[in-house]
Amino acid sequence: MRHILSVLVDNKPGVLARVAGLFSRRVYNIDSIAVGTERDPNISRMTIVVKGDDIILEQINKQLNKLIEVIKIIDLTTINHVEREMLLIRVKSTTTTRSEIIQICDIFRSRIIDVATDSLIIEITGTAEKNQAMVDLLAKFGIIDIARTGNISLARGK
Questions:
Q1: Is the pLDDT of residue 101 over 90?
Q2: 63 and 14 part of one domain
Q3: Is the pTM of this model over 0.85?
């Protein structure tokens, strides 16, 4: 099962390395990790996506809670939440394919952020599934590069 953990930590050097090291030592794979500061610049939010059963998740929670820098852990998978990732995709384009690529961008509410004579760079934000669907559609044109942010999530308001 896929779990999305929102982990609040002290914003100090080395915290990300300690968290990643914890996963590595326990042989747990991180599917994605995104880190950014909170409203309080002394606190960062880590959004960590992992796969595993309830026993593995319980072990991950126990190990994370042992780290002094960890303030709070929330398993967003169990509550109503919003999740997004961003992709930048460089795709081959010619004068004949450009209009079709632009139509796909319009359908997916994405933006073309760079135009070259032989390629376009497209920015898309959405769920991993939506983003992958767009990647699949653009594959026929020839994808040159992809950069993904990884998942970020927040619990919905009450």
A1: yes
A2: yes
A3: no
